[in-house]
Structures are given as C-alpha cells and as structure tokens.
Amino acid sequence: MRAAVRAIEPGHPGGFVKSEIVEANGLSVTDAAQVLGVTRPALSALLNGRADLTPQMAVRIEKAFGVPIEQLMEMQTSFDIAEVRKRADEIKVAPFKSTMARAPTGEEEMTNSRSSARLKKPAPIDPAVAIDSKRVELARARVMARAWAETIAETRRTDQAALFARAAIEAFAACVAPQLTLSPPFVTVRGKLDTTARQLATSVGREAAMLPIVEGGHFLTSLYTTLLPGGA
What we know:
The chain is mainly α. It has helices spanning 13-22, 29-36, 40-47, 55-65, 69-86, 106-120, 127-149, 154-176, 195-208, 213-221, 223-227. The radius of gyration is 23 Å and the shape is globular.
C-alpha cells in the first residue's frame, strides 16, 4: 500500500460499488440487482472485478443511488489506464518521425514562437472540476482505508480506527487552521499506527482539506465508523 493518495494505484470500481453502495445500504447482491434491474450474475461480476463498469450500469446506479455517472466512469477510466500502463512495454510502437520536415520561414518562426509562449501559460482549472476530482480520490482512499482496517484483528480494530481518524483530522486541521491546536482525545487509545497507515491517513486529511471545509470535515468525522466492523 502506497502512502500518498495520488500515488495509490486505482482500484476497480466494483470495489467502490460493493462497499459504498451495496453494503452501505444493507443490501444483498440479489437485492441490489433487483433495484438496478440487472441479473445477479451481472452485478456480481462487477462487484468482484470480473467485469468492467459500463456506462449503462453507471446510469442505473446513478438513478437508483444518486452517485454521479461521471464519478463512476472516471473510476473505471483511471483503472483502465493503470492496467494498460502495466503492459505498456508489451505494446511495440516506435515514435513517429516525419519525413516531410522543412525549414520554417521567418513568418512561421515568429508564429511558432508566439504559439509556444501561449502554450507555456497554464490553462485555468475549473474549481468545480478540481473539487470533483478530490471527491473521487477521497472515495478511492476510503475504500483503501477500509481494506486496511479489515486486515486488523477485531480486538485491535477499534483503537486502530480511532488512531487513523485522529491522524487524518490532525492533517486536515494543520491545513485549514494551522494556528489552532486540537484538544486531546476524550478516550485513551492503545497502540499506534504503522508508518504506512499513518502516511495514508495524513494524505487523506490533506486531500479532505482541499474540499469545502464543511464537506471535508464531514468526510473525516464519518471516517472512524467507516473503519469499524460493518462500517458503511
């Protein structure tokens, strides 16, 4: 497991649908399939990563559960890109070299120079698009955090979940209100996070800080229960 959210390898969208939609709503696979109007085998294949998320299935999920189709399909696209990157060396394509090259005229050189200067200016980023991107990254991070929590013994999971949520909140607070100091926890928590889990929690907190402050705070306050057994 990598620490930084940006460096996390995108997961199959089926994992998100299973944990954040089907299980979060207390549905069985059969029940969810009926809600979506698809067969149980078709939904099961998606949830277990054996089938891609199609636009048609994403529309059904959006209509039934309110998750935007754009968010769902971005997960599938990110996953597909990551998968093909793994096999990029197997695709044998040589760089294209034009045989039609010629010396540019003085006017063309001036035009090219102006074009290059314009290209060097970064294009403005739509704030709404940037925030939606953060939401997608945080959804993936929450799936990874739950997967991490499920590897912990039941006797330690409550304490570890509290430590993870606390680390994320501390990172969030350091970004949005660095002049403030968090009060100590009301309950003494045993143990400590390992380095990888702490780095992931810190990354989650920093990413949440890039959302509107109320939304980011809500995400983090719900993180603890997400990591508990049966958490939604």
